[in-house]
Amino acid sequence: MIEQILDINTKAGAMQTFVCRPERGGPFPAVFMLMDAPGIREELRDMARRLATVGYYVLLPNLYYRAGRDTIYGPDVRDDTASGNAVERID
Predict the structure, then answer these.
(1) Which end is more exposed in the chain, N or C (fewer Cβ atoms within 10 Å of the end residue's Cβ)?
(2) Is the dihedral angle over the CA atoms 7, 49, 31, 39 positive or is it negative?
(3) d(CA 64, CA 88)
(4) Residue 70: left if φ>0, alpha if ψ -120 to 50, beta else—which one?
C-alpha cells in the first residue's frame, strides 16, 4: 500500500490531504473520506488504510486546513472559556 500527504491548492491555501492506495493494479475507484468534527487523526487514517487494502484510492482531506496544518479540536471546542480551542497536533 502506498501512503502520502498531498497539498491540494485552493483559493484559501493548501489543503493537506492524506492519500492511500494499493501498490499494484488499477485503475482504482476513488473514495473521498470526510473527517468528523475532531479532525483528522490516526483512527481515520486507519479506516482509509483498510479501504485501500481492498482496492480503493482513498483521499482524506483536512477540512480545517484554513486553521493550519494538523489542526484538531478537543472536547472543549464549544466551551466559551476555553482558550485556544484549535489545538495543533504534534506527532
Answers:
(1) C
(2) negative
(3) 11
(4) left
Cell of 31: 473514495
pLDDT tens figures, 51-62: 999 999 999 999
pLDDT of residue 25: 86
Residues belonging to the chain: 91
42 phi, psi to nearest 5 deg: -60, -35
The DSSP annotation for 16-70 comes to EEEEEE-SSS----EEEPPP-TT-S-HHHHHHHHHHHHTT-EEEEE-TTGGG-TT
